[in-house]
Amino acid sequence: MNTDRALAPGARIGIVGGGQLGRMLALAAARLGLSCHIFTPGADEPAIEVAARATLAAYDDQQALARFADSVDVVTYEFENIPAATAEFLQKLKPVRPSPRVLALTQDRLVEKDFVAKLGIEVAPYAQVDDPGALARAVARIGRPSILKTRRFGYDGKGQALLKEGSDLAVAFRSLGGTPSILEGFVPFSAEVSVVAARGSDGEFLAWDVGENLHDNHILDTTTVPANISDDLRHRAHDMARRIAEALDYVGVLAVEMFVVDGPDGQKLLVNEIAPRVHNSGHWTLDGAVTSQFEQHIRAVCGFPLGSTRAHGPVVMRNLIGDDVENWRELLRQPGACLHLYGKSEARPGRKMGHVTFLKT
Amino acid sequence: MNTDRALAPGARIGIVGGGQLGRMLALAAARLGLSCHIFTPGADEPAIEVAARATLAAYDDQQALARFADSVDVVTYEFENIPAATAEFLQKLKPVRPSPRVLALTQDRLVEKDFVAKLGIEVAPYAQVDDPGALARAVARIGRPSILKTRRFGYDGKGQALLKEGSDLAVAFRSLGGTPSILEGFVPFSAEVSVVAARGSDGEFLAWDVGENLHDNHILDTTTVPANISDDLRHRAHDMARRIAEALDYVGVLAVEMFVVDGPDGQKLLVNEIAPRVHNSGHWTLDGAVTSQFEQHIRAVCGFPLGSTRAHGPVVMRNLIGDDVENWRELLRQPGACLHLYGKSEARPGRKMGHVTFLKT
């Protein structure tokens, strides 16, 4: 159902997924006088206790999904790995934003790369790998080092295998479960950046300043804004994100991760990945910009006007992974540090427990 | 019970009162990974749906109060007119911050003015009025125009009567219900300002920049920061707030409302009122400062270090009273406007429905 109901304060937003992104979306919705209903298979998820309502049920529980849809005015999601069938089922009952089509596209690395490449936007060399034979042919074409990735359900480095000279291709393919994959050429990038942006239901497009991302063990460690890139590159990064959002007829916040690559003709940008949701590299906007990515996403999916993306000044956002969170008291003491904790009780290694934004002016 | 338990993220905060201040406190607590339990006599209050838990019970329901206290690690309140007996009952079970002593003091205009005056801080001329005879004597001393106010339970202009030349004193006294009152001399002020500040459990004191307040029909209309006063006056305003907070052994956020009065020796400040809680004139800090008054109050009552009160730049906060809220879509469109709605369904005249902060840089 895509009929555009005019939403207003008091409206109810359904959020599929109950993690920290859902929590921060629900908190942003509350600022605007909106209430949220979380749908998640997991109990004890961070979003539940800040939302007016929660349904704990499996993604294929159609009775629960129907009741959930019935109770809300619009549905959105906080992560992209929900089953396409769930989104399509919900869309028959209530508007789902961004659309299930976007979800389906970004759930498959191959489909996503084909889509970006067809827009004339450069991506890393890639090849479809459905079996060990295809992997051998892909390696012959793309070379090594290269990275074998499952087409679906990878995140934070999960579902990836690095292929170096001498790596056993069959072992690598089996290590990912033998599922449909793609081989990506290794890109000798000088920096990783991301554009977090929003597109409204009326087509308005607004991006925050480009952030520069550092990863640690495949998990985002810090985002520094502004990224140390030229104005020209910044402009091109924004333009790429805009073209992607427009081609998807996107409504909501999205993030586009890019590699900065030095070349004979100066620096260029390759698109690495599209995230059809609020994104970790946009967390700094909670404290460092006039409008946060979370509020902006809520505004967009409700059909409200978008807010200013102006930054207050330079910032660094640092993720608190696992035990990092034990430094919370020390972080609270640092001038200009804005601490966010997600209310997770157990600090497992690799688990995102919170983040801190350092406002540098 | 005043034993200082070391709280940490995961702690549970009890908030007495369920209005918009409680709502914004609960949202700030959630950012820090804390959960809130709201105690309020009213159903359908703004704070309820953003808190992990709510108890709807009367302030004298000791069973409900005991269960509430049992479920939390620390108790605070979002408005000052809760019965002193309620605060004292809770204090026997869990730490209550700020202390019930502060609550008792600020609930009585006469006791509060005596307290401020004894600190050597100037207040408007005032006199105790317990009966019509005392009112006549007070008017003879203080003159007219002057304002008769009930000692207890007044807010937003309620419980006040303006005495002009020719006003019938007996009628005025009866109009306030014949309850113990005070007469306050009319102060020919050039501006109303307020200091919103926090004192930590370790005695650390931090204030935000002074705001200049305009009222409309006795209800705060706008707060402009910084106030248009000299650096010397700003320094004196902060110093008065600090002395008041220290004399109260205050823990949490408080607001001190002051009059700026022009005199032969330049401008001076008179303290008008102390609010022992987060305050409407500090709402701008949600969008305009590194740390909001709501997070700061939560930090203080949990015994956490206080955060930076640095402002991002000049701001104007405007309350949305009654029908004002119907302009929400227009407000969302204005660049630099940060809209907050409190989730109240009915926009009655005089009701605070939300506020908007305009970031001017």
Automatic annotation (TrEMBL), chains A, B:
Keyword Ligase: yes
Molecular function (Gene Ontology), one example: metal ion binding
One GO CC term on file: cytosol
Group of enzyme by EC: ligase
Pathway listed: Purine metabolism; IMP biosynthesis via de novo pathway; 5-amino-1-(5-phospho-D-ribosyl)imidazole-4-carboxylate from 5-amino-1-(5-phospho-D-ribosyl)imidazole (N5-CAIR route): step 1/2
Catalysed reactions listed for this entry: 5-amino-1-(5-phospho-beta-D-ribosyl)imidazole + hydrogencarbonate + ATP = 5-carboxyamino-1-(5-phospho-D-ribosyl)imidazole + ADP + phosphate + 2 H(+)
Keywords: ATP-binding, Ligase, Nucleotide-binding, Purine biosynthesis
PANTHER family given in the database record: PHOSPHORIBOSYLAMINOIMIDAZOLE CARBOXYLASE, PURINE BIOSYNTHESIS PROTEIN 6/7, PUR6/7
Purpose: Catalyzes the ATP-dependent conversion of 5-aminoimidazole ribonucleotide (AIR) and HCO(3)(-) to N5-carboxyaminoimidazole ribonucleotide (N5-CAIR). Catalyzes the ATP-dependent conversion of 5-aminoimidazole ribonucleotide (AIR) and HCO(3)- to N5-carboxyaminoimidazole ribonucleotide (N5-CAIR).
Description of how the protein assembles with itself and partners: Homodimer.
Family statement drawn from the similarity comment of this UniProt entry: Belongs to the PurK/PurT family.
Record HAMAP family: PurK (MF_01928)
Protein name according to UniProt: N5-carboxyaminoimidazole ribonucleotide synthase
